[in-house]
Amino acid sequence: MTGEANVSAHPGTPAEAWATLMEGNRRFVESAASHPNQDAARRSSLTRGQQPFVTIFGCSDSRLAAEIIFDMGLGDAFVVRTAGHVIDNTALGSIEFGEEYLDVPLIVVLGHDSCGAVTATKNSVETGAMPAGHVRGIVDLITPSVLAALRIDGASSVDSMVAEHVKQTAARLLEESPIIADGVASQKTAVVGLTYHLDDGRAELVYRNGPIGL
């Protein structure tokens, strides 16, 4: 395949970015990945700068490789990852960088089934025992989401708590960042929350704020 043929169209709006993202996930689920934008021509073109169409704020879990599960290539995604996709100043600043300097039209919060950070937080809430070291800081930041899941739905499963944590994280991005909130208010940007299912590779929408065309 030539470099020219292996370059995907660049989405410029939140709705176009959303459609491109989910089409890539569909191909991945169906084992029909096209591996766009991964050849020498694409690599060379990116020496002049980057223009990703999506910022993905996801968990650090090794099973959650964003470019693979959404069938993307070089320069397509601006990826920020922390264990349990917890927000700190560095993570928030990185997401704001994508919005302010790269004009990324879509921000995705990406959680997943059987999240170890959420599991650790669930155990801490149930037993009162806190993990050692800096992992405690991660648990502290996830605890409000676990408590919200228990309060709202009585949800006791880790995966239900993951979904609630994705929703809470996505909402906090707008609450804590005027840059992101302004982007959504002007319809230049959308924020969505997805949970990734390990068994079939499917990314499921659990939160949306902005014009993604649904």
From TrEMBL:
Cofactor remark: Binds 1 zinc ion per subunit.
Keywords: Lyase, Metal-binding, Zinc
Catalyzed reactions: hydrogencarbonate + H(+) = CO2 + H2O
GO MF term list: carbonate dehydratase activity; zinc ion binding
Function text: Catalyzes the reversible hydration of carbon dioxide to form bicarbonate.
PANTHER family linked to this entry: CARBONIC ANHYDRASE (PTHR11002), CARBONIC ANHYDRASE 2 (PTHR11002:SF79)
Family, per entry: Belongs to the beta-class carbonic anhydrase family.
Name of the featured protein: carbonic anhydrase
Species the sequence originates in: Arthrobacter wenxiniae
Phylogenetic classification of the source organism: Bacteria, Bacillati, Actinomycetota, Actinomycetes, Micrococcales
